[in-house]
Write a structure and sequence with these properties.
eight-stranded parallel β-barrel; TIM Barrel; 12 helices; alpha/beta
């Protein structure tokens, strides 16, 4: 088995991409989302972490990428589910309703639940996760944990049983941070997210841009390529996301990783 590789960025609306990723000045009717859909196979939607968008806006994402029918979207779950841990029937219903245009068009790759470092493994947190996964059992769900306590046999066994997707991440390994893994729990899908290795700013509370301000070196990309090769032998589809978005580093690094993997 050797997985199909899908590359994509975490978001597309960044002012610091002007003149680096996007042309400056922008041509008339320039569409950043369509521009990215010509470079990559999917995109993660960040705004859904902060707000539940109207269905008309989501339909707009489908319309803007109509020329690339195989382009898909991973939707980041709203922060009420992951950071506030306030899952409930009404919030779940509202969030699922906004996804309808993507589901109907076949563009919804899945949902990404990104938990913070402060969310650690315990019986209570595990129970919450099981309840959350049950609420969204109709969707492919990828679960990202940043604390290493979650790389626990009970969780991995559970995700395997419900076809939940363990998200492998590359991040600065500080204290009890989760190191880079090559773990598969879903029968067909695996996920790798690249956050960069900005150690000085990771826990420094200097803002989102500074945390993800990182440009992977050639040697680091070689290391990540080895992780990709390990994962792709275990599944049918492997999604590789670049979240080191500041100044377009994610775009540059993903394209370099793509080319590197072609030569291996």
């Amino acid at each position: 088995m050797s997985a199909a590789l899908y590359f994509g960025t975490a978001g597309w609306s960044y002012a610091d991409w002007e003149g680096r990723v996007y042309p400056r000045p922008r041509p008339a009717r320039f569409n950043p989302l369509f521009f990215l859909s010509r470079l990559f196979e999917f995109v993660e939607v960040n705004m859904t972490f902060y707000t539940i968008p109207p269905r008309s806006l989501v339909q707009g994402w489908v319309d803007k990428t109509r020329m690339c029918p195989d382009f898909s979207f991973w939707i980041k779950a709203h922060q009420s589910f992951t950071h506030e841990r306030r899952a409930g029937n009404e919030s779940t219903r509202r969030f699922q309703a906004c996804l309808l245009p993507l589901r109907r068009s076949g563009r919804l790759a899945g949902l990404l639940f990104q938990f913070p470092y402060s969310f650690t493994f315990s019986s209570a947190s595990f129970s919450y996760l099981q309840s959350l996964a049950g609420d969204f059992c109709e969707y492919p769900c990828a679960f990202e944990f940043r604390h290493r306590s979650w790389h626990h046999p009970d969780l991995l066994e559970y995700l395997g049983a419900v076809n939940g997707i363990w998200v492998n991440i590359d991040q600065p390994v500080i204290s009890h941070s989760l190191p880079l893994t090559a773990t598969r729990t879903h029968a067909e899908i695996s996920y790798l997210r690249l956050h960069g290795r900005n150690y000085p700013s990771w826990f420094a509370d200097r803002g989102r841009d500074e945390r993800y301000n990182y440009d992977y070196s050639a040697g680091e990309l070689q290391q990540l390529a080895r992780t990709v090769l390990t994962l792709r032998e275990k599944v049918q589809s492997l999604y590789i996301s670049g979240n080191n978005h500041y100044k377009g580093n994610a775009v540059k690094n993903l394209l370099s990783l793509k080319e590197l993997l072609k030569k291996i």
